[in-house]
C-alpha cells in the first residue's frame, strides 16, 4: 500500500491557482484510475484506487496549505504506511514552469506545505515530486496564489499529465526508476524534435512542460 498526497488549498477561489498543482495531479490520477472508494476523513478528501495490483491512497488535505501535515500524518498512521511509501506532490517556485523533479527525501525548500508535513511526521525522509511554477515578477505569495497565464493554461494539461505519469511510475517501479525517468534535462533551445517547439526557460519564449535533472 502507498499514499500519494497532493497539496493545495480547498475552496473555489483557489481551485485554478498555481499552489494547487498537487490537487490537480491527484485528480488526474483519479480520472485515469477511478476510485473504488471515496471518503472525507483525516481532514482530507481520501480516494482509494488500485494500480499494478496495489492499493494506492490518494489524499487531498482540506486544512489549507500551511496545515497539510496533520492530514498526511493521520493518513499515514491509519493506513500504517511508512515514510518511504508516501509520495508528496507540491508546486515549486524555484523551478521554471513545466519542470518536474522527483527526490527520495530532502528539506522543505521554503514550501509551507512541506514544512508542515516535516514538522508533523518528525522527518523529511519521504519522496516528493516538485512541479515548477517559476518566480514570476511580483511577490512570491502573489505568484503561488495567482492563476495561470494563457501560455501556462495551454501547457497545463500536458504538465499535469506528465506529473501523473511520474507518480504512477513511482508506484509501479519504485523511486530509483521513477527518478531516472522523470529527472531529465530539458531539450536545449533550438534542438527540439521535429514538430515541437524548442524548450526554454526564458519568459518571452514558448516552452513545453519538461522534467529537469536532480540536484
Q: Care to describe what's here?
A:
The protein has 215 residues and is of the alpha/beta class. It has one domain: Rossmann fold (3-Layer(aba) Sandwich). The chain has helices spanning 21-32, 68-79, 112-121, 140-145, 150-173, 175-182, and strands at 2-6, 37-41, 44-51, 54-61, 86-92, 100-103, 128-132. Strands 2-3-4-1-5-7-6 form a seven-stranded mixed beta sheet, sandwiched between helices. Strand 3 and strand 4 (54-61) form a beta hairpin. Helix 2 (68-79) packs across helix 3 (112-121) and helix 5 (150-173) packs antiparallel against helix 6. It is globular.
List its traits:
Rossmann fold, 215 residues, alpha/beta
Concise structural overview:
By secondary structure, the chain is α/β, with parallel strands linked by helices. It is built from six helices and seven strands, in the order βαβββαββαβααα.
Using DSSP, what is the number of strands?
7
Gap from first CA to last CA: 28 Å
CATH topology: Rossmann fold
Poorly predicted segments: 186-207
- How much helix is in the residues? 25-40%
By CATH, the superfamily comes out as Peptidyl-tRNA hydrolase
